[in-house]
Each structure stands twice: as C-alpha cells, then as structure tokens.
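ARCHIVE RECORD
Type: protein–small molecule complex
Small molecule: uracil
Source of inputs: curated submission
Record status: active
Notes field left blank by submitter.
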Amino acid sequence: MVPETERSLLLRQLKNYLLFLKESGHTHAPLNSELSELPVMPVPSGTFRGSSSQPLETQMTLIPTESNDDHEPSGDLTDVREELGDCQRCKLCETRKTIVFGSGNPDADLVFVGEGPGADEDAQGLPFVGRAGRKLTEIIEKGMLLNREKDTYICNIVKCRPPGNRDPEKDEVDACKPFLIKQLKAIRPKVIVALGKPAASTLLGRTVPITKERGTWHEFEGMKLMLTYHPAYLLRAYTKENRQAVYDDMQKVMEILKA
Ligand code: URA
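STRUCTURE (tokenized, with ligand):
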C-alpha cells in the first residue's frame, strides 16, 4: 500500500506533468505499444524540497501526438514552460497543488497579467477560473467583445498559490518574474494589461498607485502596457464608477488592437 501522503504527492506530480505536456502542445497521452519518449519536465538541480520520492515525470514515457496547428504554442513559450519545470525556486512550491503557468492563445495580441492563483486556480491548474476569473471573462467577452481563449493569453506574476490567498512576497515575485518576462517576450502581444497594483508594480519595477495611474499607457520591453483594476477589486468595490473605469480602460485597449 502506498501511504496517503505519498499517493497525493504522486497524483499532484502526475497532474503537473500532464498539464506540462498539454502546455507543450500534446493533446493526447495514449499508453500503448508504440511508446516513445515525451519531454521530461526539468527540475532545477539541487533545489528539490518535496518528499524524498523520485519525481514521477522522470519515469514516464508517453506518445507525442499529431500537432494541432491551429493553436500550436509558440516554440518560445513552450521553452519557458519547460525551463520552469516542476519549479522549487521559492517556498510557494511547498504548499501549492499545481503550477498555474497561463492559458489562452500563445499568439494573442492581448495578454492579461494578474497577481497569483487562488484556491480554484490551484486546484484546476488554470488562471482566473474562480469568481474573479468569471468577472474577467465577462470584461473580455461582454465589454471587449473578444473570445477569452482565442483572443487573449492570461497569466500571473506568481505561478503558485500564496497560502491563504495572501499577497505574494518579494522573494516569491523575484523568483517568478524572470518567467513572466520570458512569457511576455515569447508572446510579444500588441498590448499587456496589468490587473491591479501588484501586477502593475511588478511590471513597472516601482510601487504603482493604481487608483491614480489606472487608464494610463506605459511601456514594457517595447510592448504597450495598460494598467487597470483587478477584477477581484471590482467585485469588492462594485460601484458604477469603478465599473465604468475598467470599461473605459478596455476601450482604450480595443482602439490599439483594432489599429
Ligand atoms: N486572481 C489572480 O490574480 N489570478 C488568478 O489566476 C486568479 C485570481
């Protein structure tokens, strides 16, 4: 019998590996006689903080499938995901269930950057799938008349859930920021939207007073950057004024996307 803690760690590693394969462009994992090697998810050397058991991904082989060239992830973004591996670079790895890398179209013209996964995102391995996520989807689909999956890519400044949904700490943001930068450079969208103060401050490298600066244009590595409120803030302070502010900010984004 495998002990319960070991079993849940193995299941978590399996889930992370399957998400890693999905993000690397694999759509199936058939286990049959024609097995050939799929990529091994890298683990940073010397920094493994989990249990002493072997990472499951080092033992798994699965069949690569025909690529679906409609939404083939850009090579670069796949490289970034592979480099992130089963990340153990900060203490968030000790409490996370899943790495939430990002989702959407890797060739999108529009990227939203949030703060960090919450409980729903940690459970599902996808960003913005909880209450704030539903608000973000509404902003994209009803406010901007775009399709969330086809027209946008969504990620966060930290890829693992801070326990109890606390704010990510400086060392956690510092450990994850190189991957955010590489993600944004790999996608190179026309517009990046920073959702809320932590995302805006991380991208601009200074403390951003979001109430003052929302709705203003900035530059990040040669890409246009718009700052707006986080959808969770909108839900907490659900005033007509705040809703109008985000609507106005997104209309500015649409003007650039249509130009
Ligand atoms: N809030 C965030 O900032 N990111 C998520 O993915 C979910 C909620």
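CURATOR ANNOTATION: The CA atoms of residues 77 and 183 lie 6 Å apart.
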